[in-house]
Write a structure and sequence with these properties.
This protein is of the alpha+beta class. It has 2 domains: 132 residues, Aminopeptidase (3-Layer(aba) Sandwich), CATH 3.40.630; 175 residues, Gcn5-related N-acetyltransferase (GNAT) (Aminopeptidase, 3-Layer(aba) Sandwich). Strands 1, 2, 3, 4, 5, 6, 7, 8, 9, 10, 11, 12 and 13 form a 13-stranded mixed beta sheet that branches. A hairpin with a 2-residue loop joins strand 2 and strand 3. The longest helix has 19 residues. The radius of gyration is 21 Å and the shape is globular. The two termini are 35 Å apart.
Length: 329
């Protein structure tokens, strides 16, 4: 790392995409190597935003070369730290440039008028790697897991009998007409759940709808795969349409790797094996298409979900942390 006199921390909005492209392309290579994730589309989208000079953040500069960067996205009263990265950092617990960038970024966001909540999930960094800048500013750390399974499934998961759906429930591929019902389901499923502490969009139907649009329309979580995203629909009753009772959404993060971005069930139907049925359909479809792997993230404290994934051959490949700060706590 450069000495303090050599290093400058400058406003991200002073830089063009051309100046930061080498740094972001290096990060994309690291995502592919470590997480089997092709980050190319997300990189190009971020470079477009950088040229728009709209993202608050910082760049670590030494001798005219950008060595690291970090940015946030402002959403009404909330800020989401989107990323922090520096050359040669992210693999272990020592990340001095990223820590320096985070100190500046967090201080700026907490001083921004109207911002009373900050969220961050820096998936690249292992648990504890960037804890100090967050904990020093009053953040809560929530452990999360990055899990993966090889396809086709082997062992007990590969011979598990297909789960029968309760009478009347239909398993349908994703349709755009499901947006509103899916948002209502996500809100219902996460009431009082630790994940609604990590992502406050789950706390309202409107927020859940924004979350859906983000994972379907933007490449941050891969390219949405409507052909392997599934909804469980209850039968219609009188003039009332059938209610959405379960949801599994998938993306492609590489041509040979899928990623589950959402799996949730109506609380009233838990314990009936419906999560298993959704997972069976998802793994079967990706296996049929010849994909080699499937990944997901899950909160460590969500033992029921972890147990289900482990039954299907998912193992923890990486541990990281969600960080949350509220001004009133």
């Amino acid at each position: 790392m450069p000495t303090t006199t050599q290093l400058e921390i400058l406003d991200l909005r002073h830089f063009t995409s051309a100046q930061l492209r080498p740094l972001l392309e290096d990060e994309a290579r690291r995502w592919n190597q470590r997480l089997h994730w092709d980050y190319t589309r997300a990189t190009e989208m971020l470079l477009d935003y950088l040229d728009g000079r709209i993202l608050p953040g910082y760049v670590a500069l030494a001798e005219g070369r950008a060595l690291g960067y970090g940015f946030a996205v402002l959403e009404a009263n909330k800020a989401v730290i989107g990323d922090v990265y520096a050359f040669h950092e992210g693999a272990g617990l020592a990340n001095p440039l990223c820590e320096t960038l985070l100190h500046h970024l967090i201080e700026m966001l907490q001083a921004t008028p109207g911002v009373d909540r900050i969220e961050a999930q820096l998936l690249m960094f292992p648990t504890g790697a960037l804890a100090q800048p967050f904990l020093a500013r009053g953040f809560r750390a929530i452990p999360r897991l990055f899990m993966g399974a090889n396809l086709p499934l082997t062992g007990t998961a590969s011979i598990r009998a297909e789960t029968r759906l309760p009478a009347g429930l239909r398993l349908l591929p994703w349709q755009d007409s499901f947006y509103d019902a899916a948002a209502a389901l996500i809100h219902r499923a996460y009431l009082g759940h630790v994940d609604s502490t990590i992502n406050d969009q789950y706390q309202t139907v409107a927020g859940s709808l924004r979350f859906l649009h983000n994972i379907v329309r933007f490449p941050g979580c891969g390219t949405f795969d409507a052909g392997n995203s599934w909804a469980l629909l209850a039968p219609a009753s009188g003039k009332e349409p059938g209610r959405l009772e379960g949801l599994l959404l998938c993306s492609r993060v590489r041509p040979d790797v899928g990623h589950i971005t959402q799996l949730c069930l109506s609380p009233s139907l838990r314990g009936l094996g419906l999560g298993r049925a959704l997972l069976q359909r998802c793994t079967a479809e990706f296996t049929r298409r010849g994909l080699r792997g499937l990944t997901l993230t899950v909160t460590e404290a969500n033992t029921e979900a972890r147990r289900l994934y482990e039954e299907y051959g998912f193992t923890t490949q990486h541990q990281f942390e969600a960080m949350v700060w509220n001004a009133d706590t």
